[in-house]
């Protein structure tokens, strides 16, 4: 086995094939609040949080007008990490204000997560990590992630 990857390594961005660029921008910018960083006509756009060059690329190069993918292989979901519980609560407020429904909401012990679909049927996870000191562990110190129902009323109270 090779040496582990550097612990500071992170996923830098995701690039999605979408059927309708305007509709995708309406979701990622209009609902979730990402900022449009660059656009290439009606075919591609790059959006981010905090002025980064891009966290999400969107394009119609091979997918304009296409149907959602079938439920076999492919992207399960992209995950957007929020810096705090209050920021995740704001994301929930935005989703609900847009009239969108959640596919699920889970407390994993290490994180709290909201699950939904973008307009092209791609899975989207909106989550926040708990501080590592709060992660659930067993008697030997091994991580014991769980999946419990997330207290949405408690999360809404954070907004």
Which short descriptors sum up this protein?
159 residues; five-stranded mixed sheet; alpha+beta; single chain; 2,3-Dihydroxybiphenyl 1,2-Dioxygenase, domain 1; 2 domains
Would you mind describing this structure in some detail?
With about 160 residues, this protein is an alpha+beta fold. It has two domains: about 1-65, 2,3-Dihydroxybiphenyl 1,2-Dioxygenase, domain 1 (Roll), CATH 3.10.180.10; about 75-159, 2,3-Dihydroxybiphenyl 1,2-Dioxygenase, domain 1, CATH 3.10.180. Helices cover about 20% and strands about 30% of the residues. It has helices at about 20-30, 85-95, 150-155, and strands at about 15, 35-40, 45-50, 55-60, 80, 105, 110-115, 125-130, 150. The strands form two sheets. A five-stranded mixed sheet has the order 5-8-7-6-9. A four-stranded mixed sheet has the order 1-4-3-2, covered by helices on one side. The mean pLDDT is about 95.
A few lines on this structure:
This protein is α+β, with helices and mostly antiparallel strands.
Total beta strand runs: 9
By DSSP (H or I, 4+ residues per run), the number of helices equals 3
The CATH architecture name of the largest domain reads: Roll
Across the major sheet, the strand order is 5-8-7-6-9
Number of domains: 2
Strand-and-helix sequence, N→C? EHEEEEHEEEEH
What is the beta-strand fraction?
Answer: 25-35%
Name of the CATH first level of the largest domain: Alpha Beta
Distance separating the two termini: 45 Å
CATH superfamily of the largest domain, by name, is: 2,3-Dihydroxybiphenyl 1,2-Dioxygenase, domain 1
Low-pLDDT runs of 5+ residues are: none
Question: What would the CATH topology of the largest domain be?
Answer: 2,3-Dihydroxybiphenyl 1,2-Dioxygenase, domain 1
Summarize the amount of helix as a percent range: 10-25%
Major pleated sheet: 5 strands, mixed
Provide the gyration radius in Å.
17 Å
Shape: globular
Mean pLDDT, all residues: 93
Secondary-structure content class = alpha+beta
């Amino acid at each position: 086995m090779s040496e582990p990857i550097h612990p500071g390594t992170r996923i830098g961005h995701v690039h999605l094939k979408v059927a309708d660029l305007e509709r995708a921008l309406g979701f990622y910018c209009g609902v979730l609040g990402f900022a449009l960083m660059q656009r290439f006509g009606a075919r591609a756009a790059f959006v981010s949080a905090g002025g980064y060059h891009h966290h999400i690329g969107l394009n119609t190069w091979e997918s304009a007008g296409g149907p959602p993918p079938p439920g076999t292989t492919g992207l399960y979901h992209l995950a957007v990490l929020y810096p705090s519980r209050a920021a995740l609560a704001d994301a929930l407020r935005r989703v609900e204000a847009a009239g969108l429904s959640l596919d699920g909401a889970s407390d994993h012990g290490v994180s709290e997560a909201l699950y939904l679909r973008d307009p092209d049927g791609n899975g989207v996870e909106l989550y926040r990590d708990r501080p590592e000191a709060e992660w659930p562990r067993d008697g030997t110190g091994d991580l014991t992630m769980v999946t419990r129902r997330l207290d949405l009323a408690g999360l809404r109270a954070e907004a």
